[in-house]
């Protein structure tokens, strides 16, 4: 069991232009392009990493943020192990929309208990001088909404990016361990998809 | 008509398998690959299975057996307890976890001997002798036929999908209903072709509403055997067993399928769907591209007052070679219907003046919105905010848009904002900046670029609307085309939960803008804007690209995620001339096909009334028949284009929606 590399599906959600693709590219390829095309449709990249001695493959899904594309985006929420709710610290509206994103994800991913689902909040673009959202505001929001961990990131400067994704992996593994303990070993947990190493690609 | 009409193939599927137990050990099986057919012989329907010769190889899926002296052997028995069958693995996972090894036949003397060995597995029976079909799933589906004399034939395994298609084909001849004792067993109730066929006709535009209406309609209750009929219909709508399996990819696929309900109906619920009949498409002809149209070619097509003459010929030249870059600024205005082809220099000057006034009137509208007003107009605020963000990340490596405060960026922004005023209901949707950027790059003029963009958006509008109906329509149409062109690949995609072709979303939404390098986008778009050689040519472009990728996708056994990733990563690796050659060749192949299914000819606009199809044909063959007099060609042009360019020209096609989407 421990030797097997798990595939963890992580999905980045948030308003258009907050830097979802940039965060993914910084983490997976350690590259940053301020003028990267906005995402059309859905894309994903894989990244292997080791957390606390366990090898996992993060499959990071990136989606188009505009409301119009909701119906073509939401089917991909299914099977996610962790959701990274992203906003831009220079964009107050994108912060205000976090609640909407959280709700949309919980609904379409069919999450029964959103409060115990591993959401992680990312405030991106901290390299920008004109902030519209303060750290305290976000922390308060996180506190009021189930105590999700919060990371202030910069895809541009690579600040906190790896830390955030690693935390995502750690949270998922911890949750699985907890569930494994709670459940008798001969009961198959139907809510979780089995980890199949043959499914991870490229 | 002679009584002995040649047998007609109703359904054919290659890549089905019989698992034959070898004598040495019951744990070891070899796979006999073959094809399954439903054949109509003088009104009688037969099902036959024939093994493929070894030279044809077991299957391209397994790729294990290359010579006739070895057989592929399963080292692990694929039998699994029931709970495991319901696991989340895809069919290919199953296949991948089973290892194959070569085993040299020690007793086999030669190829022919071996072939005889294989040939003993062939069978054929009249469907009137069929008692039951048992449908089982073991990661893949397999069927067991039991005949009326209680003979049970070896199970036929559909490792490459297609069992549903076979059952649909079978339902054309017999009525299958679930056994009350075991839902995996389909019982052949009565051999009554007439009844089932009449209900297939009803189901032709199958949707649930129809079934509901059908249930309530008292007239139908007077029909004999009504209960059988309803069974028949509800069977057709019952999801197949495999859909109950909890697999994330499949769930995603199902959800996508719900979004595109027409697609699902097309694929599974429409028993009368013509493509089930295998159509011989003939060979794909050789196609040559030509040099781009040059300035002097263009000048030759203008009279002294500036009217463009012999437009069909000119369009044909553009279709075959595109335009040299210097010509684009002028020619695109005609291709995009901003300028009427038969307008004079004078008329165009006046038009431009009018359009300039109109543009700046709309531009002033958003320019004069005060901050206070903006605070109370959330839609405008949202459009503006997204346009600002997207303009900053559209083609920024192109000279025209690179660097800070590039005037190109400001124009891109202003035109998109003005378009919001032009069509506030639609506003700005991501992807639109991609469509505008090449046009602005070519026009180098705000007003001209705006109106050309408006015209392009007229065609692309449905793609961006709230319900994205244009996208759904196109995905259904593309699926229909692909199914005809390449049933094996289509079956493969379907087996991978990818039959709804979601991975083509970006291609279709912004017409390959992100897939090709900038110069190639210009070439592809001007070729498409000629409206030649048929409507929805861009769908054949999709088919051409998929045709080049299918081998890789199938050989590497790509699943749902890998297919999406592979297609996404084709971006900037495609060769436009190669693609256009193949797309045109596919068009020629379809056009020359005598029994093209109606659904396909409708998508391509090939089944138009005689008058217009003659026009279309003559337009397409103008280059090949240079003796056509300029005068008559000109008259022809006026007759159907009426000088209004692209939009008007398509109005003679029966399926206008398809084109606009």
From TrEMBL, chain A:
Gene3D superfamilies recorded: P-loop containing nucleotide triphosphate hydrolases
Topology in membrane: Lipid-anchor
GO molecular function per UniProt: G protein activity; GTP binding
The entry's keywords: Cell membrane, Cytoplasmic vesicle, GTP-binding, Hydrolase, Lipoprotein, Membrane, Nucleotide-binding, Phosphoprotein, Prenylation, Protein transport, Transport
GO cellular component labels: cytosol; late endosome; lysosome; phagocytic vesicle membrane; plasma membrane
Enzyme class: hydrolase
NCBIfam families reported for this sequence: small_GTP (TIGR00231)
PANTHER family on file: RAB FAMILY (PTHR47981), RAS-RELATED PROTEIN RAB-9A (PTHR47981:SF9)
Protein name: small monomeric GTPase
From TrEMBL, chain B:
Keyword Ribosomal protein among UniProt keywords: no
Protein origin, superkingdom: Eukaryota
Source species: Hemibagrus wyckioides
Pfam families, per the entry: PH_RBD, RabGAP-TBC
Role this protein plays: Acts as a GTPase activating protein for RAB7A. Does not act on RAB4, RAB5 or RAB6.
Keywords: Acetylation, Cytoplasm, GTPase activation, Phosphoprotein
Aminoacyl-tRNA synthetase listed as a keyword: no
Bilayer-spanning residue ranges: none
Gene3D superfamilies: putative rabgap domain of human tbc1 domain family member 14 like domains, Ypt/Rab-GAP domain of gyp1p, domain 3
Molecular function per GO: GTPase activator activity
GO cellular component assignments: cytoplasm
Complexes and interactors: Interacts with non-phosphorylated form of RAB8A; phosphorylation of RAB8A at 'Thr-72' disrupts this interaction. Interacts with ARMC12.
Domain (Rab-GAP TBC): residue spans on this chain: 322-532
Name the UniProt record assigns to this protein: TBC1 domain family member 15
Record localization: Cytoplasm
Stored InterPro entries: Rab-GAP-TBC_dom, Rab-GAP_TBC_sf, SGSM1/2_RBD
